[in-house]
Amino acid sequence: MTLEFLGTGTSQGVPVIGCHCKVCSSSDPRDNRFRSSVLIKTNHHTIIIDAGPDLRMQLLCAKLDAPSALLLTHNHQDHTAGLDDLRPIIHKNDKAFPIYCEEATELRLRKQYDYAFEENLYPGAPRFEMHRIRNQPFKIGKDLITPIRAQHGNVPVLGFRIGNISYLTDAKTISHEETEKMFGSKILVLNALRHEEHHSHLNLKQAVALAEKIGAEKTYFTHISHHLGKHEEVEKNLPKGMFLSFDGLMVNA
């Protein structure tokens, strides 16, 4: 299995429009971050997790023209605003694109992309094959997907475990029972927004503490804002086996 980070930034991306801080002005390409999304390749499928407003460029950068399915963690715009960019894939394959999400996310998509769910579709409109999931294991073909429940402030979100990879973003709190689902992971991905406390995201200190509890071989932090600091400066101070992710990073699991 491989994990590729399509995007590692927070909802505004990095650089932030109109900001000239040292991170937003950095010449280090690792400090340029699309909205958070990953690509997991198994022996059977190529699965995208989340589709924010940068999806078109992310798929072009990854040279990806045949993803198998999309998993959505929750219904916020920085995780769902790119679905229309799937149209070339839908038209090329001449079939609806599979999306796996919870009921609240599906209902939001049916409003946001109402033109994709009409009985008589406009020529060129996207077509989505909706699969409603809950916090229970399910399969995409031969691949077992285990959802992981967390709270993003007062918004319930899902992370996902696929094989040896556990991915959890936009989390602030998580129960011990849900945390146990990530035990034994080879690769762990957690959100780590900034150093300061935040009402709906783990900060770096909290993410490190959770990572130490889970004990994966390697942990990568994502959903990073410009407030966290420059990639090079932050990563050198992380505990052994923990890293800042960056756009385009690929790891084996």
What does this entry look like structurally?
Helix content is about 20%, strand content about 25%. By secondary structure, it is an alpha/beta fold. It has a seven-stranded mixed beta sheet with strand order 6-5-4-3-2-1-14. Strands 7-8-9-10-11-12-13 form a seven-stranded mixed beta sheet. It has a single domain, classed as Metallo-beta-lactamase, Chain A. The longest helix has 11 residues. The protein is globular, with a radius of gyration of 17 Å. The chain contains seven helices and 14 strands. β10, α5 and β11 form a beta-alpha-beta unit. The protein starts with a strand and ends with a strand.
Number of domains: 1
Q: What is the CATH architecture term? A: 4-Layer Sandwich
Strand sequence of the main sheet, in spatial order? 6-5-4-3-2-1-14
- State the share of residues found in helices, binned by percent: 10-25%
What pattern of helices and strands is seen along the backbone? Answer: EEEHEHHEHEEEEEHEHEHEE
Strand content bin: 25-35%
**CATH topology type:** Metallo-beta-lactamase, Chain A
Overall mean confidence score, pLDDT = 97
Quickly count the helices: 7
